[in-house]
Design goal:
By secondary structure, the chain is α+β, with helices and mostly antiparallel strands. It is 54% helix and 18% strand.
């Protein structure tokens, strides 16, 4: 396979993975929003019942009405948070390259994986340095790579666990550590269980991934992109 065919194959893989990633995040977010709307609808029905009681001359408990109003407002707040996260993810596609704060991007991806983690009885916390962790990269593809790594960490859980995602600057870019995986006292082939699309993402991002099963962590290193390129050629 020549260079042109290799580049085309890489981008086909990345395009397919990107669609899966954005689709999965959209589906998860919309599911959560629908849950919030269902609760809001339920509470609105209770408020209508209280209003009907007042019209019929029955005594109404103002504290009960206030409680339902607070619960509705809280569901609206949570729904706005979910929509905001999905909106921020959508805006990572605004440019092929840009200087972003890697820690902020990690926090966003962690938030978007909240539902998937909860279903696997897993909690995820993002931890970044007090200073920023700027890196010039393709924001959406980096978010995608982080998401794939988180998915690997979550799907491998066979019991409740707590994961910590640490972002730290390096001499040549940023390093993202997913810690808290089950430690496995055996050697595994490099990349075992890793989707081929992740290698394509790493190729474009100029990233390296190590899975240290003995220490129970996944380590993603990403170098800054060359401002004169946008990754692998589309040709």
């Amino acid at each position: 396979m020549n260079v042109k065919e290799t580049n085309a194959a890489v981008w086909r893989s990345v395009t397919a993975e990107s669609l899966r990633f954005f689709g999965a995040m959209s589906a998860s977010a919309s599911h959560e929003i629908r849950n919030k709307l269902a609760v809001i609808n339920e509470k609105a029905g209770l408020v209508e019942d209280i209003a009907a009681a007042i019209r019929s001359g029955r005594a109404a408990d103002p504290d009960r009405l206030e409680t339902q109003a607070r619960k509705i407002a809280e569901q609206v707040r949570q729904a706005n948070r979910i929509v905001g996260a999905l909106n921020r993810l959508a805006h990572t596609t605004d440019q092929d390259q840009g200087t972003i704060d890697a820690a902020e991007l990690v926090s966003l991806v962690v938030e978007l994986h909240g539902r998937k983690a909860a279903m696997a009885q897993t909690t995820i916390a993002a931890s970044g340095p007090e200073i920023g962790t700027p890196v010039r990269t393709n924001p959406f593809l980096l978010a995608n790579a982080i998401g794939v790594c988180l998915g690997l960490a979550i799907s491998g859980a066979d019991e409740p666990r707590s994961l910590t995602v640490v972002t730290e600057p390096t001499e040549h870019g940023v390093r993202i550590r997913i810690q808290g995986l089950s430690r496995v006292d055996r050697d595994e082939a490099p990349g075992e269980g890793r989707p081929p699309s992740l290698d394509a993402l790493l190729n474009i991002l100029d990233g390296d991934l190590e899975e240290d099963h003995r220490c129970g962590e996944i380590v993603l290193d990403v170098k800054p992109a060359n401002p004169n390129t946008t990754g692998v050629s589309h040709e």
